[in-house]
Amino acid sequence: MDNDRLEGRVALVTGGSRGIGAAVARQLAAQGADVALTYRQDAERAHQVAREIEGLGRRALALRADNADEAALTGAVRRTAETLGRLDVLVANAALFPSGPLEDVDTAQLDRVLAVNVRAPFVLARAAAEHLPPGGRIIGIGSNVADRVPFPGLALYAMTKTALVGLTKGLARELGPRGITVNLVHPGPTDTDANPADGPNAPAISGLTALGRYAAPAEIAAVVAHLAGPAAGYVTGAVVPVDGGFSA
């Protein structure tokens, strides 16, 4: 749709080298945005996504940044604004997916997961807010398990993704007077390297959705891109499930 076009806008997508993050980066570029993306380890995949974005006629920037490193995150925001000239959209996507019994979670793992999944989105939003103009967008990527935890072993992950609900609503109130919207997308089971649709647990997980299947990453990206566009200018503080009816 024309009112979802993003020409002249610059986006930063964390964790943009694969899965949902890569799909979001590609979709934003397809709708006209220049896109920076962060990665932690796989430089080749990140630069491949950047080349695909450039193939769409947009500018791209691949930045190494560990989500647990506050200085790296603020540096990624700064470099995006300096290199691409501005920052209009932040998509906080990068996250860890811990699972396992409660008694196996030690303090070191707890602290790292909280740093990556909760502290990082706050740090990114704080840094991005210095650059975002009226009409700016902050979009978090949460999880369906914030609404429904279907299996044991997900307490730590569910806690971190639930924390993003409060962050989203608080930031929406704080940044709303500046014309900046803040929203959270809760994907359901999505076909990625970390959770493939043909994996051993996929039939059981698919059966928990109303549609009986996994999402393609592009289906999540389409909703994120809509929230990034002009048509969603009156949507803020919202938690948007894109979960195939998982939480219905």
UniProtKB/TrEMBL annotation:
Keywords: Oxidoreductase. One of its GO terms (molecular function) is oxidoreductase activity. SUPFAM superfamilies: NAD(P)-binding Rossmann-fold domains. It is an enzyme of class 1 (oxidoreductase). Its EC number is 1.1.1.-. Pfam families: adh_short_C2. InterPro entries: KR_dom, NAD(P)-bd_dom_sf, Sc_DH/Rdtase_CS, SDR_fam. Residues 9-208 form the Ketoreductase domain. PANTHER family: OXIDOREDUCTASE, SHORT-CHAIN DEHYDROGENASE/REDUCTASE FAMILY (AFU_ORTHOLOGUE AFUA_5G02870), SHORT-CHAIN DEHYDROGENASE_REDUCTASE FAMILY PROTEIN. Belongs to the short-chain dehydrogenases/reductases (SDR) family. This is SDR family NAD(P)-dependent oxidoreductase. It comes from Kitasatospora phosalacinea. The lineage of its organism: Bacteria, Bacillati, Actinomycetota, Actinomycetes, Kitasatosporales.
